[in-house]
């Protein structure tokens, strides 16, 4: 398969290299990563490990200083890349930074969701259809919410409205920086169900998170430590069969810790990986194994 994202030898540092002074510390160093179409990839690591910087590079907000970052065929590391190419890239690969609801600025929800595509020349019925589809995808009824004031929404509704504005651009790749940060567990769970629906519809989704339970919903997880990529594996492989998360300063989800303990005691859970996303299934497996 041809990956939609191919990163090789990627490096990035903040600050300029001054003559006769040490080089600025690298935020990303030697990153190699491939992402397939319609994959749901989690980016995990301690604060300052380079997760957000990588997302910003993939979105074209920052440009690689060394190495290759090829997204949908466009090499973002090409020094000859122009603003026109970058603008087209940002329409296909869209990022939502942490707490995107803080970027809501129009009075009414429908107008805010419409802002992005309208800015790219979408008008009339085509624009209305985009707004409706994006809002409904995020669980906001078009008829109920399009004329609601943005400042009247709950926190979860504001997050959905902000992400609907991103979806209205119809991205091929969606980059989410801590998409569930600050949400209560039911709202976070609902958001990730919708993210998985996007992936099922063919959108490639990459998200960063500090919540290891959310990582269990991904197809694969990329583990970062101090700007280096330690591993890219399935969540089950990472949490149940390796100590890589701990090396990156991450605590595996409780379900994984329980299962590793049971596996250490001889219980065979290799054919029951789905339990990690379902506490009730985990309880049944434990009960069956102890019966």
From TrEMBL:
Gene3D superfamilies: P-loop containing nucleotide triphosphate hydrolases (3.40.50.300)
Pfam families, sorted: ABC_tran
Family: Belongs to the ABC transporter superfamily.
GO-annotated cellular components: ATP-binding cassette (ABC) transporter complex
Domain called ABC transporter: residue spans: 5-251
Keywords: ATP-binding, Nucleotide-binding, Transport
Domain of life of the native organism: Bacteria
Protein name: ABC transporter domain-containing protein
């Amino acid at each position: 398969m041809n990956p939609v994202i191919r990163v090789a030898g990627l490096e990035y540092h903040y600050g300029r290299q001054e003559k006769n002074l040490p080089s600025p510390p690298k935020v990303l160093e030697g990153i190699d990563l491939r992402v397939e179409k319609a994959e749901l990839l989690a980016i995990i690591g301690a604060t300052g490990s380079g997760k957000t910087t990588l997302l910003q590079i993939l979105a074209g907000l920052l440009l690689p200083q060394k190495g290759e970052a090829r997204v949908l065929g466009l090499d973002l590391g090409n020094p000859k890349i122009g603003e026109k190419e970058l603008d087209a890239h940002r329409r296909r690969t869209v990022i939502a930074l942490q707490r995107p609801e803080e970027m809501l600025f129009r009075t009414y929800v429908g107008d805010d969701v419409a802002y992005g595509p309208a800015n790219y020349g979408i008008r009339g019925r085509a624009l209305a259809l985009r707004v409706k589809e994006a809002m409904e995808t995020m669980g906001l009824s078009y008829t109920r919410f399009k004329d609601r004031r943005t400042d009247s929404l709950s926190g979860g509704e504001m997050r959905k409205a902000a992400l609907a504005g991103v979806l209205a651009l119809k991205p091929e790749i969606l980059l989410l920086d801590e998409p569930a940060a600050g949400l209560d567990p039911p709202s976070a769970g609902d958001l990730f169900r919708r993210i998985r629906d996007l992936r099922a519809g063919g959108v490639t989704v990459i998200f960063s998170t500090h919540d290891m339970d959310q990582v269990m919903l991904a197809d694969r997880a990329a583990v970062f430590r101090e700007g280096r990529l330690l591993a890219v594996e399935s969540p089950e492989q990472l949490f149940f069969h390796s100590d890589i998360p701990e090396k990156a300063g991450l605590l595996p989800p409780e379900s994984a810790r329980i299962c590793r303990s049971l596996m250490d005691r001889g219980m065979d859970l290799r054919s029951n990986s789905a339990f990690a996303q379902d506490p009730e299934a985990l309880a049944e497996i434990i009960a069956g194994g102890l019966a």
